[in-house]
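Thread: quick sanity check before group meeting

JM: Hey all, I'm pulling together slides for Thursday and realized we never actually wrote out the predicted structure for the chain we discussed last week. Dropping the sequence here so it's in one place. If anyone has concerns about the input, flag it before I start.
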Amino acid sequence: MKYKLLSVHNKDVNNIGDYIQALASSQFPPTIDGFVNRERLDSYKEECQIIMNGWFMHHSENWPPSEYIKPLFRAFHINNSVKNEMLKDEGISYLKKHEPIGCRDTNTVNLLVNKGVNAYFSGCMTLTLGYKFKSFEKDKTCYFVDPVIPNKTSLSSLLSDTFYLIINWKTCRQISIHLFGTNINLRRFIKTGRFYRLYHKFFSQETLINAVFVNQESSFYTTNFPTDETRLKEAERLVRLYSKASLVVTGRIHCALPCLGLETPVVFTQLENDDFISTCRFGGLSDLFNIMFLNERESKLNFQMNSLIDINHTPENKTSWKSIAQKLIDDCKDFVK
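JM (edit): ok, ran it. Output follows.
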């Protein structure tokens, strides 16, 4: 039997998080015999086993998968935007053949249970990344990985952003380069002022200036890593960086969840009152994080800190993820025996 990983070949998808999920699955098979495009599973013609974890799917008309694929459904997410297409009679019948379905979030659990499918909350496969990639050495680096910055602002908030930009010009100029590189315009400068206004309430200025900023969704990954193999290697490089970090602040669940599994202190940033298409991914997962909620006016934490956050004063991660990760590890080991 061959063992394959899920990949994403769509030119419109430049999220290295898809390959961080693949990296998590790659920890368990005895060999990795290639990749299968997540968006074209119905046309696959070679027998293989695949751990079916991740976001399904942009091309929902190509569901369900081919009968040649032996799947293990763990960390499975059906987005609310495609549920009607994926949960037609044929799709439901397929999922019933492969019960129980381990779901990445509680919204997917509810969707499937309401259709009569045996489903449960399994959490995300990236929680298992500590199985092979945990580092016992920590450097003195803080990473900001796509931190949330609200886009919609009122006139009063816009004036506040501009005020913070003016009175903290030198600091904001440094941060703006971190956020946007050298391609900076007035709109981006003002957005930097918003970032500083919302984040300096809880993070030290030294942290905001000296942090390494990473973007996990960019055409950079498509351009510079054109094959599945090179993208998987890049995902591994990022995971190893996060594993050694002293602190990670991120709006990406496929950075925050790996950091839990790697036992790296992490703060998840979330837009308050975001739309359901986005938040349907978070059910059950957000309970595992220390979260900073943001809107255009303010930021607030769902945890307590007695000082500003920096690499020497980090929040302690919750531990409720550990039993979830262990169940995933056990299931995957059994699957590939």
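AS: nice. Residues 2-125+324-335 form one domain. The radius of gyration is 21 Å.
JM: adding both to the slides.
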